[in-house]
């Protein structure tokens, strides 16, 4: 492509370190789309004659069909997808192919291709996250009243419902989706026509190419256009946060499916056996979702580090944006799909959950609240009385609800047997009716609200 100034080809190792075709070939559809938009604009602007435009357009479509058919030959000596497409175009349409690169550079070309790819991928991730929300909200509705222990410090804290726990993740996913959309909105400016870095002397119409590629407008500064990878960083940071959310739920699935917890059952479809221990049912998919968050986070830090020392405008360093971005966003897509599958197959075990919800003095706060509400004790005093009663029950090896009334009255004489009503886990969750609280009616209403909202999004 630049034969004019070069007497010999690159060293073997130069070719190896330089080539990106091995991974940027996936940008072929975006590259061809960008070229079609560019050449159409060159024709309309009177920069290329109509017959050249027609030839190039037909040639590009042939290249696309060869790529679709899998007959396109990607060659390392052609370095990257941009040169591979152009070189094949030359074989098909002859020297006219050389006119396609008028008023552009690979620098604005690659920035455009990457934005298109990231944009499509963000849209797909948004839809997948919505599907996971759907699966979770459906399960939440079914288990709006299924009590389970709520934890802080992974110690039994207060009873909650299984549906409430799931809806916490629906909220997280909604913020993730908001971040995908924010990233998409900021990304949606077209760098094509910034050329190498300074713009071009040809009378191009950047507004036309931007519009034909579905961008809101062209980017406003040619240097920034080719030097910017914020769109990838933002997508990766949104992806990293989403991956962390999935990882946290994955961790819970791992813990909950263990024999010691037994809170949920995971289907055979999402479980593996052990080649040596016949009793094992391993939650491999959940473990891998947990682990793969590391790759996504790694891609974000990797690209931040690539970018941080680069002077304006383009540097070849920026070619390193690709593998991490492709891998991380595809990894997140896989994790979202695996998680949606697991959630659809997940079966909570209500008896176990209920028994666990009542253990560990999880209704101690309910007792303290009762003392405040019914006897007018200051909360701190109620906390103290309750603490002593928990100590008493614990030394007898029994639950709070099994403590004789006389023992309670020895601590606080005004306690009556009405107190036992709040010591049951069902009563406990039922009383948490504050907005956002775990009362089954609340949870049911929230789950229904989400399902309605998700249905109206797709309508
Ligand atoms: N393969 C290159 C990349 O991904 C395309 C841009 C090359 N530009 C250049 N001036 N060498 O960044």
From TrEMBL:
GO molecular function terms listed in the Swiss-Prot or TrEMBL record: argininosuccinate lyase activity
Top EC class for this record: lyase
GO cellular component: cytosol
Subcellular location, record wording: Cytoplasm
Domain Fumarate lyase N-terminal: 6-298
Start and end residues of each Argininosuccinate lyase C-terminal domain: 361-429
Entry keyword Protein biosynthesis: no
The protein's annotated pathway: Amino-acid biosynthesis; L-arginine biosynthesis; L-arginine from L-ornithine and carbamoyl phosphate: step 3/3
Domain of life: Bacteria
Keywords: Amino-acid biosynthesis, Arginine biosynthesis, Cytoplasm, Lyase
Pfam family, one: Lyase_1
EC number assigned by the record: 4.3.2.1
Biological-process GO terms, alphabetical: L-arginine biosynthetic process via ornithine
Reactions catalysed: 2-(N(omega)-L-arginino)succinate = fumarate + L-arginine
The family this protein is said to belong to: Belongs to the lyase 1 family. Argininosuccinate lyase subfamily.
Name used for this protein in its record: Argininosuccinate lyase
């Amino acid at each position: 492509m630049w034969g004019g100034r070069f007497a010999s080809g690159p060293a073997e190792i130069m070719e190896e370190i330089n080539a990106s075709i091995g991974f940027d070939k996936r940008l072929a559809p975006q590259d061809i789309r960008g070229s079609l938009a560019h050449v159409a604009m060159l024709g309309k602007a009177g920069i290329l004659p109509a017959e050249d435009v027609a030839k190039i357009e037909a040639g590009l479509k042939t290249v696309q069909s060869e790529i679709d058919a899998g007959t396109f030959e990607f060659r390392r000596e052609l370095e990257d997808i941009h040169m591979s497409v152009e070189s094949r175009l030359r074989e098909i349409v002859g020297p006219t192919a050389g006119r396609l690169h008028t008023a552009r550079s690979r620098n604005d070309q690659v920035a455009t291709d990457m934005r298109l790819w990231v944009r499509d991928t963000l849209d797909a991730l948004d839809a997948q996250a919505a599907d996971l929300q759907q699966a979770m909200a459906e399960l939440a509705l079914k288990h709006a009243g299924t009590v389970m222990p709520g934890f802080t410090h992974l110690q039994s804290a207060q009873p909650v419902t299984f549906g409430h726990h799931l809806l916490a993740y629906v909220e997280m996913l909604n913020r993730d989706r908001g971040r995908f959309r924010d990233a998409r909105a900021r990304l949606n400016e077209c760098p094509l026509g910034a050329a190498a870095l300074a713009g071009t002397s040809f009378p191009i119409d950047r507004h036309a190419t931007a519009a034909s590629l579905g961008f809101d407008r062209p980017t406003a500064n040619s240097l920034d256009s080719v030097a910017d990878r914020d769109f990838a960083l933002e997508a990766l940071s949104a992806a990293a946060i989403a991956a962390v959310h999935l990882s946290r739920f994955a961790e819970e699935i791992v813990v909950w499916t263990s024999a010691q917890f037994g809170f949920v059952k995971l289907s055979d479809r999402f479980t593996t056996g052990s080649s040596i221990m016949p009793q094992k049912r391993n939650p491999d998919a959940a473990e891998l979702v947990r682990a793969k968050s590391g790759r996504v986070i790694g891609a974000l830090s990797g690209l931040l580090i690539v970018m941080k020392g680069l002077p304006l405008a383009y540097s070849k360093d920026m070619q390193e944006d690709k593998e991490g971005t492709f891998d991380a966003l595809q990894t997140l897509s896989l994790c979202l799909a695996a998680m949606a599958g697991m959630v659809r197959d997940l079966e909570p075990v209500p008896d176990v959950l209920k028994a666990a919800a009542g253990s560990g003095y999880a209704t101690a706060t309910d007792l303290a609240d009762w003392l405040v509400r019914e006897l007018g004790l200051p909360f701190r005093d109620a906390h103290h009385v309750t603490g002593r009663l928990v100590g008493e029950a614990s030394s007898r090896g029994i639950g709070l609800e099994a403590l004789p009334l006389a023992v309670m009255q020895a601590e606080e004489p005004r306690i009556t047997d009405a107190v036992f009503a709040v010591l049951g886990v069902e009563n406990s969750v039922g009383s948490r009716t504050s907005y956002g609280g775990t009362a089954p009616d609340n949870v049911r209403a929230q789950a229904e609200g989400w399902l309605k909202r998700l249905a109206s999004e797709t309508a």
